[in-house]
């Protein structure tokens, strides 16, 4: 009833799960350029090889 008293009919609207503006909500993941991704994966492979040698 509080929502109805404060906001009228708009106060009864379902508001859960909706972003309130531009830029709100979960951030989008940025796509990496292929060269950066390759370098990252190569570094990860080297680290895993060293870990397995232990």
What count of helical segments does DSSP give?
2
Order of helices and strands: HH
- Portion in strands: under 5%
Tell me, briefly, the overall form: elongated
Report the end-to-end length measured between terminal Cα atoms. Answer: 65 Å
Low-confidence stretches: none
Rg value: 24 Å
Helix content: 40-55%
Mean pLDDT: 80
Number of strands: 0
* Structural class label: mainly alpha
- Largest beta-sheet details: none
Description:
By secondary structure, the chain is mostly helical. The chain has helices at 2-7, 34-53. The chain is elongated.
Summary, kept brief:
The chain is an all-alpha fold. 48% of the residues lie in helices and 0% in strands.
Tags for this model:
about 55 residues; mainly alpha
Write the layout of secondary structure elements.
Blueprint: H1 2-7, H2 34-53
């Amino acid at each position: 009833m509080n929502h109805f008293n404060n906001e009228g009919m708009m106060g009864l609207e379902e508001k859960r799960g909706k972003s309130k503006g531009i830029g709100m909500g979960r951030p989008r993941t940025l796509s990496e350029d292929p060269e950066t991704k390759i370098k990252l994966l190569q570094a990860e492979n080297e680290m895993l090889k060293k870990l397995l040698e232990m």
